[in-house]
Amino acid sequence: MANIQVERVYSIRLRQKLVGYPRWLRSKKAVRYLRNFLSRHMKVPPENVKFSEKLNELLWSRGAKWAPSKLKVRVVKFDDGVVEVELA
Fold first, then answer.
1. What is the domain extent for residue 25?
2. Nearest 10 degrees: CA dihedral of 88, 58, 5, 48?
3. What is the model's pTM?
4. How many structural domains comprise the chain?
5. Dist. CA 15–CA 20, nearest whole Å
6. How far does CA 59 lie from the centroid of its chain?
């Protein structure tokens, strides 16, 4: 595995980003927003952002309609450009 280049902790508010969407799309939009947010802040393409299983289970734990309103995540960027995201 490549060496760690950058490691950060973000507290991300999702509630205000999901207000205008239909309920059945909220978890899907939360995943897309989180991926785009982290790709923008870590300066990598969105395809290189990988979520951990626990984070994915948390995002979808209450179904597609009720996404969490706030997340605290730990983000690690490696030398090869891959970004791994896990719960803090």
1. 4-87
2. -170
3. 0.90
4. 1
5. 10
6. 9
